[in-house]
């Protein structure tokens, strides 16, 4: 049943019927309140329909540390409804590959690099031959590595020295 809902969400998204896709995402969230996947897609749909503030609220709510979440009593993690949603939405052949890709690019633009990579990897899980997603993963991974190296250099620089100050003196 959940696979059918996510396929319908993907079909509406691909055809540009964003109001219907939003209704599906909200319906899934009503049934499974802890589903991060439909919350992320709801955020994407809100963003695409110029409701940026609501979209950011959805993204912030979805960006939780799952290890900090309280465990559901006596339910193994792989049997939780939210885990089944992730499998349904990113399984091979999922109609949501394009939406995952768009979500990944949006997360990248918003500076949410970890979420961007996760969304793009879900696009590749759904459609392993998705060349644009492969390219985006490589670029974001390279960008993230560059940012991390730059951050480490800034941390290691002696207090009061900045690379821009050094360049200005040359």
From TrEMBL:
Lineage top rank: taxon: Bacteria
Renumbered ranges of TPR repeats: 97-130
Cited Pfam families: TPR_1
Gene3D superfamilies: Tetratricopeptide repeat domain
SUPFAM superfamilies: TPR-like
The keyword Amino-acid biosynthesis is annotated on this UniProt entry: no
PROSITE patterns hit by this protein: TPR, TPR_REGION
Family annotation (SMART domains): TPR
GO molecular function, one term: transferase activity
Location of region: Disordered: 151-170
Alphabetically ordered keywords of this record: TPR repeat, Transferase
Protein name: Putative O-linked N-acetylglucosamine transferase, SPINDLY family
Organism of origin: Candidatus Accumulibacter appositus
């Amino acid at each position: 049943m959940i696979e059918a809902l996510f396929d319908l969400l993907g079909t509406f998204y691909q055809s540009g019927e964003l109001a219907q896709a939003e209704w599906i995402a909200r319906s899934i969230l009503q049934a499974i309140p802890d589903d991060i996947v439909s919350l992320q897609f709801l955020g994407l749909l809100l963003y695409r329909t110029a409701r940026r503030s609501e979209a950011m609220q959805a993204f912030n709510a979805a960006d939780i540390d799952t290890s900090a979440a309280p465990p559901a009593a006596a339910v193994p993690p792989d049997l939780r409804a939210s885990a089944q949603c992730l499998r349904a939405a990113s399984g091979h052949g999922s109609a949501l590959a394009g939406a995952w890709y768009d979500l990944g690019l949006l997360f990248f633009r918003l500076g949410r690099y970890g979420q961007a990579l996760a969304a793009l990897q879900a696009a590749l899980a759904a459609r392993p031959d998705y060349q644009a997603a492969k390219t985006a993963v490589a670029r974001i991974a390279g960008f993230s590595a560059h940012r991390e190296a730059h951050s480490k250099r800034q941390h290691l620089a002696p207090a009061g020295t900045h690379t821009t100050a050094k360049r200005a003196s040359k």
